[in-house]
């Protein structure tokens, strides 16, 4: 991927969080933008309802409530709920209105805290859940430590601390800054352009690579144990089901992150010329919290039992 023009690259890749610095042809058929924002808002509305149901299930269902994993997964769901109800509208509505809506510099500056903070926290919260599953599988005798209340609180705070640190810099204009643009706000370099690449690596590459390594290890180890016991262990079967469900969630994150990077990095000309392609990529970034396969946990009673382990 060509990183020579880091500014253009990041402004394009920032569509992963419903961001784009591309210049749209204002004479292009307006129905595409109408279809885009309608689809995004309806998808996120449905996702918000699903996330509320999941949170209620985590709160009401006794096996889930007693689980050491419950607070970690509930945090992921809560972050997804905020993104679907608050963060996405904050971004897509100004994008849809375009030049007719002039945003202030202060609005864009603090958008890093009201929008990017939660996208980042969601990524790292998913990574923490993956780490929790990894310890339970690989180091079961040490997992007792990570089931303690103090340990769970510490794991919950890690995501917010990392997200807060990474999002404080653009708010203060250190390394990057968020500025008003024709359609909403865009991320721009401040000082060394390499800071944009570092921001993408920390916010997207690191957590997805970490989650992938965790879930591949968990699934491999669990499969080996199931073969040794000839598939007769109900606890191992439940562990496999919940790990597989969370792995699908990880794959969905990859679908929303890496295809846009590939398209905008290697097919930049086609991307620049196709409004439909731009909107499709932005749809991915704006809807991953609404179509997160982790909702499959609701439909599996075995997974619910496994969470109590």
Characterize this entry briefly.
73% of the residues lie in helices and 4% in strands. The chain is mainly alpha-helical and 309 residues long. A two-stranded antiparallel ribbon has the order 1-2.
What does this protein look like?
- The chain is mostly helical and 309 residues long.
- Helices cover 73% and strands 4% of the residues.
- It contains twelve helices and two strands; from the N terminus they run αααααααββααααα.
- It has a two-stranded antiparallel sheet.
- A hairpin with a 4-residue loop joins β1 and β2 (185-190).
- The radius of gyration is 20 Å and the shape is globular.
Features:
2 strands, 12 helices, mainly alpha, 309 residues, disordered C terminus
- Read across the widest sheet, the strand sequence of neighbours is 1-2
Q: In terms of per-residue confidence, which ranges show pLDDT below 50 for 5 or more consecutive residues? A: 1-28, 297-309
Succession of helices and strands: HHHHHHHEEHHHHH
Report the span from N to C terminus.
43 Å
Computed over alpha carbons, the radius of gyration is 20 Å
Overall body shape:
globular
| DSSP strand count | 2
With helices defined by DSSP (H or I, 4 residues minimum), what is the helix count? 12
Strand content: under 5%
Helix content: over 70%
Largest sheet: 2 strands, antiparallel
Structural class: mainly alpha
Helices and strands, with pairings:
Blueprint lengths: L5 H8 L16 H31 L1 H4 L4 H28 L7 H34 L4 H4 L2 H24 L2 E6 L4 E6 L3 H35 L5 H33 L1 H6 L1 H13 L13 H6 L3
Antiparallel strand pairs: 1-2
Helix pairs in contact: 1-8, 2-4, 2-11, 4-5, 5-7, 5-8, 5-9, 8-9
């Amino acid at each position: 991927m060509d990183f020579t023009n880091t500014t253009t690259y990041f402004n394009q890749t920032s569509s992963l969080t419903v961001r784009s610095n591309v210049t749209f042809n204002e004479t292009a058929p307006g129905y595409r933008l109408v279809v885009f924002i309608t689809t995004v808002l309806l998808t996120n509305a449905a996702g918000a309802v699903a996330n509320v149901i999941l949170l209620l299930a985590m709160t009401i269902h006794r096996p889930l409530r007693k689980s050491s994993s419950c607070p970690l997964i509930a945090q992921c769901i809560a972050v997804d709920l905020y993104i679907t109800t608050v963060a996405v509208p904050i971004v897509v509505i100004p994008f849809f209105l375009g030049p007719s809506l002039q945003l202030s510099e202060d609005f864009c500056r603090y958008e890093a805290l009201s929008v990017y903070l939660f996208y980042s926290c969601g990524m790292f919260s998913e990574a923490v859940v993956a780490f929790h599953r990894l310890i339970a599988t690989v180091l079961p005798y040490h997992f007792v430590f990570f089931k303690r209340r103090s340990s769970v609180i510490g794991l919950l705070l890690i995501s917010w601390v990392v997200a807060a640190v990474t999002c404080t810099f653009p708010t203060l204009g250190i390394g990057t800054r968020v500025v008003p643009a024709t359609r909403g706000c865009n991320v721009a370099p401040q000082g060394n352009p390499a800071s944009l690449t570092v921001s993408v690596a920390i916010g997207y590459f690191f957590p997805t690579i970490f989650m992938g390594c965790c879930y591949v290890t968990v699934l491999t180890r669990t499969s080996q144990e199931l073969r040794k016991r000839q598939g007769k262990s109900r606890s191992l079967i439940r562990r496999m089901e919940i790990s597989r469900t969370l792995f699908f969630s990880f794959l969905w994150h990859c679908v929303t992150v890496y295809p846009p990077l590939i398209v905008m990095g290697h097919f930049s000309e086609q991307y620049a010329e196709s409004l439909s392609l731009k909107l499709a990529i932005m749809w991915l970034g704006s809807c991953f919290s609404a179509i997160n396969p982790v909702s499959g946990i609701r439909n599996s009673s075995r997974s619910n039992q496994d969470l109590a382990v």
